[in-house]
């Protein structure tokens, strides 16, 4: 297995949302070369890709968008179908209907192939187990397992790095502020399941979580 790790460059899995944008600015502080990688899976709100493109353009970050339309065919859910309404409350059993089966597995696998071709070993993703909506592919155990699998699959020493894994949304806002990216993340990212940029619709699970963390962070500064 290739042993030498490249700690001067990183690939960031970048959706244009709050968490991945925080990770992008986190990476820009730590690496000489950062490449943002987004995925077009014909998601209902293509605006998130527009947000991703704008942020990368404004901050001179190399950005690639990969075609993952097959995922849309395989995993119909409320983020890919206009006729499926987003669950506003967590279900008593199972995952929310906003969960896209296999999404992080596929995104990180393709990011790894992309990174290896460029001699990059570090892959940054904004998943978090501390403040998440019941998505199994945001858990630390999944990331560690996939990291091992990708290293074995390609005989290459990848490091999947998760800066937000143990941060709640309040702490994520604090990190954004520390990175000097607070206003960008508050006003230019799309986290809302109903496709509203910035503060969002206010009533989908993602908006509720984002606002709760923001309110807590702003209160802690007073």
Provide an overview of this structure.
Belongs to the QueC family. By secondary structure, the protein is α/β, with parallel strands linked by helices. The chain has one domain: HUPs (Rossmann fold, 3-Layer(aba) Sandwich). Helix 1 (18-28) packs parallel to helix 6 (169-178) and helix 6 crosses helix 8. Strands 3-2-1-4-5 form a five-stranded parallel beta sheet, sandwiched between helices. It has helices at residues 18-28, 47-58, 69-74, 103-117, 140-154, 169-178, 182-188, 205-221; strands spanning 9-13, 33-40, 62-67, 122-124, 159-161. The protein is built from eight helices and five strands. It is globular and about 45 Å long.
List keywords for this structure.
alpha/beta; 222 residues; Rossmann fold
Concise account of the structure shown:
Helices cover about 40% and strands about 10% of the residues.
Oligomerization category of the chains in this entry:
single chain
CATH class: Alpha Beta
Largest sheet: 5 strands, parallel
Outline, from the CA principal axes? globular
User: Regions with pLDDT < 50 over 5+ consecutive residues?
Assistant: none
Distance between the termini: 52 Å
Overall pLDDT level: 88
Number of helices: 8
**Radius of gyration from the alpha-carbon trace, in angstroms:** 17 Å
Name given to the CATH architecture: 3-Layer(aba) Sandwich
Spell the H/E element sequence: EHEHEHHEHEHHH
**Extended strand count:** 5
Q: How many independent structural domains?
A: 1
CATH topology: Rossmann fold
Secondary structure category: alpha/beta
Q: How much of the sequence is in beta strands?
A: 5-15%
Tell me the helix content: 40-55%
| Widest sheet, order of strands | 3-2-1-4-5
